[in-house]
Structures are given as C-alpha cells and as structure tokens.
Amino acid sequence: MSNTLIEYITTFVLAAFVGFEVISKVPTILHTPLMSGSNAIHGVILVGALAIAARANGPLEITLGFLAVVLATINVIGGFVVTDRMLEMFKARPSSPAGKDGQQ
Amino acid sequence: MTPGSPLLLAASSALTMGQGVRLAYLLAAVLFILGLKQLSSPKSARKGNWTAAVGMVIAIAASLPGLSLSSTKILVILAAVAIGVVVGWFAARKVAMTAIPQMVAAFNGVGGGAAAVVSVSEYLHTAALAPGVVQSFSTVFSVVVGSVSFAGSVIAFMKLQELMRGTPITYPGQRVVNGGILLAIVAGAAYLIGIHTSIPVLIGALVLAVVLGFGFVLPIGGADMPVVISMLNAFTGLAVAASGFVLGNTGLIVGGTLVGASGTLLTMMMSDAMGRSLGNVLFAAVGKVVAGAGGDAESSEGKNYRSGSAEDIGVLLAYSNKVIIVPGYGLAVAQAQHAARELATVLEKRGVEVAYAIHPVAGRMPGHMNVLLAEADVPYDQLKEMDAINDEFRSTDVVLVVGANDVVNPAARESKSSPIYGMPILNADQARNIIFLKRSMRPGFAGIDNALMYDPKTTMLFGDAKDSLTKLVAAVKAA
Question: Buried-most residue among A50, B168, B195, B214 (CB within 10 A)?
Fold first, then answer.
C-alpha cells in the first residue's frame, strides 16, 4: 500500500467523522436547506470533470468530459442558487408591524 | 502523464498538482465544514451557503493551473461551463417555490451522473495500464453509486413533478428482481476488482445500476420522497469521494465524504421526524392506497361526513377567539399561501388570535412549508413548530386544515395497523371545531384514510384551497 493511498484513506475517514459531527441538532425547518446546501457541495465533482475534460483523448473522451462538466456545473450553480433562494425567505424581516400578535 | 501502476499515477499527479493546490483544497474543505455548520442554525444558514460556495470557488480555481489545455479544449470546457451555468441558474431561479423539492432531486441527480461519467472516462483513459485493486474498486463504486443516484433522482423528480404516479409502484417479486440486479452488479464489480480490465463489464454495471436506481425508487411513495432524495444526496457524496480516489484528488475526497456522512445523518433525522425507520421508508411501500388504516371495515365507504358553505364557516371563524391554521402541501399546490395570510390578517383585525401550526414534515420536505409561508410574508412569530403548539389545540376554537391530511391523522396515534402509526401529529382533533379545506374526500399524499374527516366536530369545505380561502376572506369580512 502506498503512502499516498494511506493519506487518502486517512482523509476519507477523518472527513466522514467531521461530516457526522458537524450537523448534529438541526431544526427541522432547516432540513431542506441543509440537504440542498450539501447537495451543492458534492458539485465539487466539477474539479474532477475539468481534469478529465482537460486531458481527454479522442472524440469519446472529449464527449464524456464535456458531459461531465455540464452536469457538474449544473450541480454547483443550481445547488448554491436554489439553497440561497430558500434561505432568502428566512431572512429576519424588520419586526412585524406593530401590535401584530407579537412576542410569543 | 507518467505511465505506471495507477497508484503511482495517482501519486505522481498529486505531486504535480503542487503543494499550493493541496493547501487550497484544505482551505476549501475548511470552508465546506464551516458552511455545513452554519447551515445547521437558522441565524447563520444563509451565510453558511455562501461560505461553502466560496470554498467551491477556491477548489475549482486551484485546480485550473494544473490543467494543460489546448485552445480547442478551452473552448469545449468554456462551452460546457456556460451551458451548465445557464441551465443551473435558470432552473434554480425560475422554478416555483412549490417545485423546490424536485429541483433538489434534479441537481443531486446530475451530480451523481457527473461522478459516474468522470470515473468511466478515467477508466477508458487508463484501461491500457491495467488498474490495480484500489483503482478498480473506486471506479466501480463511483460508477455504480453515481448511476443509482442519478436514476433514483430521475424517478424522484418525476414523482414529485407528477410526471408519473406518486403512489408506490409495485409488482410481484419486485424485491427479488431488484436483489437479482444488485447481485449481478456485485458479480461484475468482483470481476473488475479481481484485476480484469473490461470496459464492457464496467458499462454493463453502469446500465444495471441505472435500472436498479429506477427500480429501487419506484415502490416508494411520494410522501417519502424527501427522505429518498436525502439518501441519494449522501450516495452522490460517496460517489464523488470515490471519484476522488480514482483521480487522486483530495478535494473530491473531502467534499464528497463530508456530504456522504452528513447526508446519511440528515437522512436518519428526517425519517425520525416522520416517526419511521429508514428501512420502513425504503421498503414498506407506504402509501399504497389498498393499505387502509385500521382495516377495511373502517374504509371511507358509507361513513358520514359534513360539508359546509364558506359563508357559515366564515361566521364561525369571525366569532372565534383563537384560530390555528394547519397548512399542508395542498396549500402549496394551490399557491394559496397569500390567501391564507390574507385570511389571517382579516381575522386579526377582528381581534382573533391566529397562528400557523407547522408539522415537521408539512409540505413535501421538512421546512418546505416555512419557506412557502415566509414567501407570502407571514410573520415569523406566527409560525409555530409542532411541539410549541400542540398543547394549544385544546383551547382553540377552530382549526383550519388547509390541504393537509396525514399530519393531523389520529391513526398515527391510535391505530397500530396504520402505516403512519407512531408518526408525531398535530393535535388538531382536540380543537372545538375542525375545518378541512380539501378538494375531495380522497386520501392524502400518503394514501391513508383519515378518520378525523368523519369526526362530528369536523366540517369539510370542498374546492381549490385558494378559492376556498378567498371565499372565506369575503365571508369573514361580511360577518
């Protein structure tokens, strides 16, 4: 087993633990935005898509590279934008017009 | 590209990327983690999304200098990025708020597809070098899991978009067929991992994985789709991480694994919120209409219910002290959130206390209803979560159930044979009067009959939720 592989496995295992620990106790209203936000994060596959597109040989590999970049870009852009759109709705409004059933 | 064993290959490419790139990936990983952390709290959630987005920009920018690009390749990549940006942006920006769950499914699906394509392409590129065990395993894993995620997301999208039936689609021997496909995939994977380089076997595994993704989501009811999407989201994360092993890229490994792990936990939290186990969600085909709650003797046939006019109900509301609105997906479909807010406003003008009771899984995704009502400018302090409001129903004059059903179904509390038994529900049945705004007596999204609709305290107001609410506004004003 090479040192590089051990390094990758280490990274993988530690990242798995961090992923579990980082999101404990999420209120239900944030389940959807959190899912959507993490959905955008796996758009990091775009880095891999760019790499294979860049060194593709021949029409088949170029086509696959093109396809991968399109799909991954949709994942990244769509993911972050739709998450922001959801969370935009939660922004603290200037406190609701006076006397409106407030303070509970 | 140095020829050699794949591990050498991975090692050498990691080195040529340079240490600066690795540090940039580390920075990106930190930002992803902070972003997830901030996304977990209402105050910082929006910032968290942008924190993660900055991490993404850093990861992508850092990877660019290492690419050796001909001018043709630059054009191809720019074209692909441009298409992706335009499609992603418009899909995310223009889609109705009600359609957001299926958009998340779609964005997840393309991510899974991208991971599979990346690994297939890398396999084609390096097949001549006879990939080693780790390389083959990672490739097969990311191709299979990415394809399952892609295909499963397609079905989830179609069910939520109502391009196909939302209820479970089952046939005899379904599990045997799916199990058989899974076995075939495992056999193919074992063949490839046992150091046989075979492009046809890999493609075969991909095709079977797509079939499995379709077949595995078909029997799951529409109401359970959010949990499925969350799980497929975790799948895509793992597929991306495996692609990271294939390409020797720590940025992919960290980003993918974070999503895989946090997505798994989120999936379990979501099925918990529904009072169900993940296994029950995935395999019980809950929501098949035949599986009526409490046995067939209690089916809706021949039971009495009362329906009322908007005018009568308007008067009832106008002279109440306290009204609780229970919004459900029907409200979202009818785009009735603005009409609901208007009704609440006219009631408050008359001194009626109004609150919205938000069930954790109201709408089609947890938190979906909050998003919709916020869009209609409903004051945040009127939105009450289930635990905060459940004791108030007892002292409530009228509960207005707008396009919701399962979340107020007492069978979840009382009937052990009901598929939703154990799901926490809103105690709407404890209020003095219950008004259901529904199109018909048909069971809800989960396909389960609701005894509350036949309760003597209950009045049905049939029609489109938005029309009904508008009529109620007029009736309250006239009262």
Answer: A50
In a domain, A58, yes or no: yes
Per-window interface: B 124-143 vs A, CB < 8 A: 124-125, 134
* A94 in a structural domain: no
**In A, which residues are within 8 Å of B88 by CB distance?**
73-79, 81
Least Cα distance to B323 among B308, B305, B345 occurs for: B345
Q: Per the domain annotation, does A53 fall within a domain?
A: yes
B162 contacts chain A (CB < 8 A)? no
- Verify whether residue B406 is a known catalytic residue: yes
Q: Is A67 part of the contact surface with chain B (CB cutoff 8 Å)? A: yes
SS (H, E, C) B271-326: HHHCCCCHHHHHHCCCCCCCCCCCCHHHCCCCCCCCECCHHHHHHHHHCCCEEEEE
The pLDDT value recorded for residue A45 is 97
What's the gap between Cα B304 and its chain centre?
36
User: What is the H or E stretch that residue B361 is in?
Assistant: none
Looking at beta carbons, which residues of chain A come within 8 Å of B32?
41, 44
Q: Which residue has the higher pLDDT, B154 or B161?
A: B154
As for how many domains chain A has, the answer is 1
State CA A74 to chain mean position distance. Answer: 12
DSSP at A92: P
Scan for tokens 């909050």, then name that residue. Answer: B370
Residue type, B15: L
| Full domain range(s) for residue A54 | 43-86
Length, in residues, of chain B: 479
Active-site residue among B296, B381, B387, B406?
B406
Looking at residue B17, its pLDDT comes to 53
Q: What ipTM was predicted for this assembly? A: 0.88
pLDDT tens-digit map of A32-85: 889 999 999 999 999 999 999 998 888 999 999 999 999 999 999 999 999 998
Distance CA B42, CA B383 (A): 14
Residue numbers of A between 7 and 36 with CB closer than 8 Å to B: 7-8, 11-12, 15-20, 22-36
B449 is written with which tokens? 């009959």
Residues 6+ apart with CB under 8 A from B454: B300, B303, B304, B305
Give the pLDDT confidence score for residue B447 in this predicted structure.
66
User: Which domains can be identified in chain B, with CATH numbers?
Assistant: 69-283 (no CATH), 296-478 (3.40.50.1220)
DSSP of B380-426: GGGEEEHHHHTTTGGG-SEEEEES--GGG-THHHH-TTSTTTT----
Q: Is residue A59 part of a domain?
A: yes
Cβ contacts below 8 Å, chain A against chain B, sum to 396
Contact A19 B69 (CB under 8 A): no
